[in-house]
Amino acid sequence: MSSNLHQAGVKLLKQLGRHAELVMDVYLSGSVSEDETNAAAIEKLRKSDILWRPEADQELRLKRSVRALLEEALSDERNRQIDSNVGSSLASIKTLAAHYKEARHNVDYAASEAYLADLSEHVYSFADGLRYSIRVLWSRINNEFGYVGTINAKIRENELAQKQVTELLNGLEMFQFSELGEIAGDIRELRKLLVTSLQDTLSDCTQELSVVQGRLLELLGRFRQIRGRTRLLKGWLLYTDLHPDYHPADHVSHKQLPALFNCAEALLAPAAVDVHSSLYEPELFEIVSNIKRIDRLNAGHVIAEQDVSVSLSQTEDFDIPDNPLKLAVDAYFCAVIDSGKSQSALEYLDEQALSWDRESWLYQVICGYEGLPEEHRQYFELEAIGESDPVYTGNFVIRDVELWLA
Amino acid sequence: MSQVTETTLVGTSALIERLLKGQFICRTTDEDGWRALKNPDTRERVEAYLNQINRTIGSAGEGEVFFCGYQQLGESERKVISSQFKDICNALIPLVEWLVLVQEGSGQDAPLSEGAAVRLTELQTRIEDTPAFREQLAKISHYRLFGSTSSNVDAQIKLVFKRLVELGYLTKPNAEKQIFIATGKLDYLYEVIRFIDETEGLSLEAQAETATQRDLV
User: Fold this and answer.
1) Helix or strand holding residue B101 (H, E)
2) What values do phi and psi take at B21, rounded to 5?
3) Distance between CA atoms of A192 and B79, rounded to whole angstroms?
4) Selection from B151, B185, B172, B155 nearest residue B67 by Cα
5) Of A242, A257, A285, at which residue does a domain stop?
6) How many CB atoms lie within 10 A of CB B65?
7) Is A248–B200 a contact, with Cβ atoms under 8 angstroms apart?
């Protein structure tokens, strides 16, 4: 018998596997219509009771048990079916316990063992079912009933879920552990199943369900608030449309001022620098030139009032023309023109015994070269003398620059 | 010890300044300040400071939004409040129309409330594609509150959003991105409408509900 059952089960599962595509299509679309391409497969599935026809002129649908299997395995969020029928589970558990006790009393070990296995199966599947129901509820809460579109539908879904929670909780109340304890008597196996294991499950689940209930109420409150606000806005528009000359009454003239309208006048006006005023330009440039702080922590921190971009397009106006370093560099360029020979910048610096810092001198020479107008620059060639950084590739350390006439 | 008092002083000074500027403090605009006001100790300190200049902390939106009000009301204070009330009443219709436009334009079933983001470019595309929304936007932007004279959707919507940032109903956290976040001041606005609705017995919600039911029929 059991090997028959085993074989039949394997056959059924294989069939499911063979027609997996079709089964999933039916699962997703709800029903399937027969045509030539899939007639054979559908016939087979129908014979093994995977598909069925609810009414003569209806299309074929998946059997509830297969659908439930898929819903559970795929944790499909559209699943809102919750088995809250605790009463019948309790009754079957009690019945099986009675069978077991009787068989034990009659010293029929084979039967008692079978009953115990059956009973454990019932108890565990009841616990699993309960946990599964809670999981389904949580998944619906966690995506805030995202599978329905409108707020009204969400409110209805939420109410359905609350009803289910209440039913589950009512069902769980039917468990009287004193009664179960009496049934179990002093039989160790029964006590373990009916009292210890069930009690653990139930107390866990009841606790979790009350959390679920709290969350559902909270969500419902939020949904109602959202709906209330939407209606408030719509109602306001409707009302002002109907009464175009409507003006709110003067609610602030009462002796007792509603706290809501007690808004003080701004004491401090928001201040911002007028960066477009050319009068402030020297001051602004001084401020900007003093900025040195490297502040990586506050990088990206933007102050709300500061949405004016500072443009620095006219910097040349502020080049100080008689900068002596620049003049010296100009002299160096002239010296190169006069001599017509190439000369390194540092050599010139030493030759003329100029007092400039060597690095600034090099920078200024490079700047001087880059700063020349295009038509002048093409008379010169500037080459940097130096070496690549020994450690970091791509970095070139300039030791000196050489200038000659092109 | 001295450091602790110093940091709290520095912290509340910015907060007090914002309150005195007439800004609304909420989680979105100023989370530190909001947290400070949620804390009874700091709130008391700020309150004590404000009391010296006849100001007090007011709150709305179930205690999530804070603003500065008068402690004692004299003639001049009442005048200020009366003019502010007038301002807010005049702003109500444009703001409500704008809120409905944003809600419908972005296809959401929740109206804008604190912390919700609006992507301007997305909204703009939707409005541009729908003549009814375009008309609505034109109407809204021409209200005195926004004062647009343009007939171009881009200019209208940019101006409306800019004004709303100035008025404190929206913030723009990143200057380079066209993403706006609604502030607690919007929640304050809802409370004002609800207050008017309740005190004047307009039963706006019931009217809206019957209207939608009529639509369904």
Assistant:
1) helix B75-105
2) -75, 0
3) 77
4) B185
5) A242
6) 25
7) yes
Chain A: give the shortest CA distance to residue B95, in Å: 10
Backbone angle region of A357, left / alpha / beta, with phi > 0 → left and psi within -120 to 50 → alpha: beta
Paired residues of A343 in beta bridges: A403
Q: Do B17 and A229 touch (CB under 8 A)?
A: no
* Domains, in order of start, for chain B: 2-70 (1.10.10), 76-212 (no CATH)
Q: From CA A206, how far away is CA B203, in angstroms rounded? A: 41
Residue A115, domain extent:
75-242
| Residue A35 and residue A132 share a domain | no
The predicted-structure confidence for B14-25, as pLDDT tens digits, reads as follows: 888 888 888 899
Residues of chain B predicted below pLDDT 50 = 1-6
- Number of cross-chain residue pairs from A and B with Cβ atoms under 8 Å apart: 144
CA distances in angstroms from A203 to A200, B131, B157, B164, B189, listed in the order given: 5, 59, 57, 53, 46
DSSP-assigned states of every residue in A332-361: HHHHHHHH-S-EEHHHHHHHTT--S-HHHH
pLDDT tens, position by position, A38-50:
788 888 888 888 8
Give the residue from A154, A225, A232 with the most B CB atoms within 10 Å of its CB, the best one to mutate.
A232
Q: How far apart are the first and last CA of chain A?
A: 104
Residue among B110, B11, B126, B43 nearest A155 (CA) = B110
Number of domains in chain A: 3
Which residues, given as ranges, of chain A have pLDDT below 50? none
